[in-house]
Amino acid sequence: MGRLQRTLSTVSEADDTDNGRVAVVGGSIEYPNQPALVGEAALRTGTDHVRTLVAEPIYDIVAGYSPNLLVSPYDGERFDSTAVDDTVATCEWADALVIGPGLVDADTAAIRDVIDRIDVPVVADALAIEPALDSDLSNVVLTPSDAEDDPIHDGHESLEQFTEETGAVLTLTGDVDEIVVDGERLENDTGTSALTVAGTGDTLAGITASLLGQGMDRRTAAELGAWILGKSGELATAEFGPGLVATDVIDRIPSTIR
């Protein structure tokens, strides 16, 4: 049995332990459902509690998505400095943070302020990736698609060099998902072409944050997170073919872990 499979067995056997809390900052009027997808993925991966922090105009949408999610609003239509203190306070409760999915028009300085002020591990996804590059990345997993990694290449000869210089961990999604850590590039061996469907990036962010919140180190969480996403996608594809949607993948996470 390989290292990831042994780790997966540990996750599935940890039913009587505290499985962590995840905070999610994301969403916007244009993309209101992204934080809910992240939260559902974290819960399906075993997290005990998820609290999403969203702009007041989309609070009702996210709160009505699932009775399993805790939801808190912040004032205004965009994430800015007025929401930072609420986020930092929530991260004193949480064991991991996801920031960025659907977070349109956010104040980049506010995103950096949050990352630099909190102690829990962070998954910086989507629209938080570029702002996060000016923060301390020694406690961060970045989850860019292969269409979102240009800002990371700027000023660095390679993604491997970037991880060596910043301490960041990268999960790069594309035709083949790759994990880049400590100057090393690893390929994930699960997945299907159907995982290009919208919402699977949010699913990956939620899975990874759940594993971080359960106490895994960033490298293991990144490797196992990509593996779980890919294997859950395989199970969903076997049932639905190319017509699967992100929630089909999320619903199969427990089967993958079992």
TrEMBL record:
Its cofactor is Mg(2+). AMP binds at G201. InterPro entries: CARKD, Ribokinase-like. Keywords: ATP-binding, Kinase, Lyase, NAD, NADP, Nucleotide-binding, Transferase. Its EC number is 4.2.1.136. (6S)-NADPHX binds at G102, D202. It comes from the Archaea. It catalyses: (6S)-NADPHX + ADP = AMP + phosphate + NADPH + H(+); (6S)-NADHX + ADP = AMP + phosphate + NADH + H(+). GO terms for biological process: metabolite repair; nicotinamide nucleotide metabolic process. Residues 1-258 form the YjeF C-terminal domain. Gene3D superfamilies: 3.40.1190.20. One of its GO terms (molecular function) is ADP-dependent NAD(P)H-hydrate dehydratase activity. The keyword DNA-binding does not apply. Catalyzes the dehydration of the S-form of NAD(P)HX at the expense of ADP, which is converted to AMP. Together with NAD(P)HX epimerase, which catalyzes the epimerization of the S- and R-forms, the enzyme allows the repair of both epimers of NAD(P)HX, a damaged form of NAD(P)H that is a result of enzymatic or heat-dependent hydration. Belongs to the NnrD/CARKD family. Homotetramer. This is ADP-dependent (S)-NAD(P)H-hydrate dehydratase. It comes from Natrialba asiatica (strain ATCC 700177 / DSM 12278 / JCM 9576 / FERM P-10747 / NBRC 102637 / 172P1). The gene is nnrD.
